[in-house]
Amino acid sequence: MMKVLLAGYNVDYDWIRELRDKSGLKQDITPETLSAAYARISRSPKSVDQLRVDARAEVEKARRSNRNIVFAMGHSSVAEHAVFNIDVIGVSRLLVEEIEKFRLCSYTEKSQRYVLFDRDFVVPEEIAGAKMKEIFVETVRLQNDFYHDLYQRLRPRVFEQNPELAENPANRLLLEGWAKEDARYAIALATQTQLGMTINARNLELMLRRLASLPLAEAQLFSGKLYDATREIAPSLIRYTRATEYDRLTRPRLRARAETLLAEEPAKAGREKISDVRLVSATSGADRQAAAALLFASSGRSYGQCLSRAARLNERELKGLLRTVFENMQPYDAALRELENIDLQYELVVSASCFAQLKRHRMATVIAQDYDPRLGVTVPPSVRAAGLQKDFMAVMRATERAQDRIRHKLPSAPPYLLTNAHRRRVLMKFNARELYHLSRLRADAHAQWDIRNLSEKMLRQARRLMPLTLMMACGKDGFAALHQKTFSGK
């Protein structure tokens, strides 16, 4: 007889502590018992709910079992059953980029699109130690003053330019948000923020180790505090937390080798002009490759036979096959997994503000260079329209002068002082299924303008190479019209 039992769910830790204190329970309350119970499923004749009872009754035995299975036997996936919810408060936007590199975690961050940030910021230990704190603080205060002034000047313009929305008081926060999201381009990566993070024990251990290996003092401090917050809860699942030579040395040594190997390559002087979106590679014959994967998944034939048949499909047959994939799709439906066989690789030049959103697409491969003032800055269109570009650029130049002074004294200084407008190069690889997901969210009218412009350019370039595979790739707001246009004639 089928049974589906609720084994547990995340509960606020303060509540757990209060219930434990009131009950007088001496035994540890820990997610390790779930890991231990689930680890025993493969070798025990007992039902899994009974295994959970056994694990709760003997926590220390469960912990010994976890240590043996996870570390001695190497079955690390067992640690994924233990999940933590973590409040992260008072960290810089720069550190958040490092925290959110870990794919298999969930993050919800305080948004600079919706919240007017105060003047709280991180003063990096590296810069304070180099006696550069005064110029750092002075520059961040300049940025913050301009940010608040910019918001006050953009806000009435947003209301004036959207009179129909402004008539309804319910739209006030929406319109104010548009002003906030453009004003934020003036504030630094040192700006303090907060986030909620959900992470399993396996990824927690990896995060502790990787962040401890970074040269960023704030990352090392965060790693230590994260370990302190969790080590008593699940000690049997978290062991290798110290920085390793692999994590600590590989990147710096690669940088040194890259510098040597590229020394003869002429660098372009001044601010380099480069397209913000360039599709550098894609699966050859993508529509027919997609067709081959679809034929394979829908038949009993070998992949070689399916590939051969896909190559011989006439245009009507090829289009008919791909139309079958999308005819009954709704905007909330994920594209079929077969489209993961189609790859696209882009070189992008994006602002920090845009990257903050782009990095959330963690299933894509995202390789980012350091922020580079030589790539210029992204100026919000509203700032140009309001005639404030000159003031905006004056703040950017003051920022870059201060950053140059700091780097002259401290060449390895992290880019805390650079702003959300500053840019970096990103190499990003998607499959076509992921590009559908990105387009639904980011090519939509509700998306922020910077990432929406980027996503629309990415789609345009990709569609030239694979028009059938991407026939329904668009934002949610445009899906109904595109579906009607594509399938009304049949």
Major β-sheet strand ordering: 4-5-7-6
Span between termini: 46 Å
* Secondary structure category: alpha+beta
State mean pLDDT (0 to 100 scale): 93
Describe this structure in words.
- With 490 residues, this protein is an alpha+beta fold.
- Among the domains are: 13-81, no CATH class; 284-337, no CATH class.
- It is 51% helix and 10% strand.
- The chain contains 21 helices and 7 strands.
- The chain has helices at residues 13-23, 32-39, 48-57, 59-72, 93-99, 125-129, 133-161, 163-166, 172-183, 201-213, 217-230, 245-261, 286-297, 303-312, 315-326, 352-358, 381-385, 389-409, 432-442, 449-465, 479-487, and strands spanning 83-92, 106-109, 192-200, 277-282, 343-351, 365-368, 423-431.
- The mean pLDDT is 93.
Short description:
The chain is α+β, with helices and mostly antiparallel strands and about 500 residues long. The chain has helices spanning about 15-25, 30-40, 50-55, 60-70, 95-100, 125-130, 135-160, 165, 170-185, 200-215, 215-230, 245-260, 285-295, 305-310, 315-325, 350-360, 380-385, 390-410, 430-440, 450-465, 480-485; strands spanning about 85-90, 105-110, 190-200, 275-280, 345-350, 365-370, 425-430.
